[in-house]
Amino acid sequence: MTNESIDTALGTRSDHPAARTDRWHVNRRQALGLLAGLAGSTALSWPHGLHAKTKGGAALKSPPAGTLLTAKSDLAKEYLKALKRVPGFGGASLPDRLFALASTTRRDADLYGIALTAPAYLDPASGDTAPPVVGPTLEFVRGDVNGVYLTNDITICGTDHNIVMTSPQSGWRPHGYTTTNLHTHGLHVTPQAPSDDVLLSIRSGADTDPMMIAQPKLYPYRYQMPGDHPVGTFWYHPHKHGAVASQVGPGMSGALIVRSQDGKPDFDDLIAAAPYNITRSDEEILVLQTIPYYFSNAEETEGVFYPAGYYVKGAPDPSTCYGLTLTEGDATTEPPTTVNGQRIPTLSLAKGQIRRLRFVNATNGQTYVPKLRATDGSTPLPGLYAVAVDGITLLPMPGAPADQPYFKVDQGLREGDDPSLYWTTAEIITLAPGQRLDLLIQADAPGQFELYGATAGESPMVTEVDDPNTDTLIRIDVGDTAHDTPQSLPPMSLFAAPEIQRPVPPEVDLTGANLPPATRSLEFKTVDAAFNASGVPTYPAFLINDQYFDGNLDDPAQIQLYKGDTDVWNLFSTNDAHIFHIHINSFQALARVPYDKVNRVYAAPIPYRFPIWRDTIYFDGGPIKDSEETTFLPGTMVVMASKQVDFTGEFVLHCHNLFHEDNGMMVTVSILDPATGALDPT
Prior knowledge:
Shape: globular
Largest sheet: 11 strands, mixed
Number of strands: 33
């Protein structure tokens, strides 16, 4: 690519938030105004035309590893030319580690036997002619500069619908299905370009719409990782508002693993050493997806992802869909869960072997509570031990035996046994959209097992109004032969090791009987009255404190935070299941607070046994019937605390049900320097 073509591809961005310092803003918390008298809950439904194959049993395959680019490669040279054209980076050099991702549309993706046409991530440096549906796994090293060269030539089935971001409708109507960008979900890095800036728009090279022509069609992402960043399981995905569900839904996502620097061990290195011997070769990455499609041939062996149909149903004119005529599958069947693009693959274990399962929930709206069952009558079940959630190693639990394996998942717990331990276990084992969960599994006896999504009553879980997904995820085959390497489960004392890095904790006092007072409250709600008879919103239906996303970059951020501050948040829903996610700084989940629907007040908080680090968290709420009226009341509240450290900039918080996000359930957030009211230089 020539210098001129890179200049054209990058375009101009004078309105980028990094160039703006006029972001003083008074917090606009609004009254709750609880809704009354509305119809029953009407969340966006799954579209027609979804087909569920159920064959499985093949060996579990790991997603391909992303290819590290060499300095002499053409892709690296193109990246560096593009990076030097980003304001402030004229003297930049290549990152320590550099990957490439091509956002494109595949015509040959193998989805459990269906040849799928859909947007996807490809590794242009890999040479793999038949990669899986899931994107390549990227490995970043903390303390290093890591980079991703993103290009975009997505095409879609159907007609695209671009809306200028200054229009209020851009905040709550799905649009711009070929425009993309990149979000490194869970990373603690600057939100300013060219890092984790999700307010960028990267247009498709195939898009000639005059509205989009000035936007870049490639981008040189650069992430300066702090040296004390937690090691763990993170992930990446598109984050262009209005099109996130239409790109993540068909499979545009992948795992992102953060590793430690040489000579600076962390949790992964500690458990790799004797006597634990749980090494990288014992790790399995499991990316969960639910990918829908319409059939595009009579034999029902080929499928097409149709983005407009994903949101509002219907079928496109063949002239706008590669000349194909689409037909629906079973309209009542949701797309089945796949693991790394496979349907119910098999994981084989030797007797006594310990494997580390790194789960990434990359679905648009499905929540799972992983649970084991025997399929051949074998007993006992293998043991499950949680070691990390959302990429951060669990804290030790006060009062638990220091020499015992930790954290053993007891799915026989019931709330009446020990409410605090029940809700702690429920928080850890629930895997909502966007969340990650690292489990160790060990079986002492041979047998055949399945890991599946538990239903209500089968396990502690934080879902109360919504039903979790109950698909079978993987089969587990434990052989008769003992593992040839002695291994041990890490005890709780290891989780207190000083080598383990976690985020800077919020400055809150948790020693007393009361929780710290909230400084912010966010109400998430779905407005049922906004939907027409076809289930399509006619005005903003997904709101946070009665606001929807403001995409006009000239407007002040909708929530204002200051670097160095600790914020205590109350999060709750008055209708529907929602999944709070905030970028840049993780938070400590401290407690759940049940709502007394009889007396219409919140009951006493139930603190977790220890703070649980997260960047994404589930809560729900819903209506009750009073005579002939429906009253919308809050559900169980989440109390969490975060400290805004290291970075300033503008980013977002939102619901990680991506249908809700694209339909408006997102607000902008700014962190400013408290002394200057400005952004720090990049």
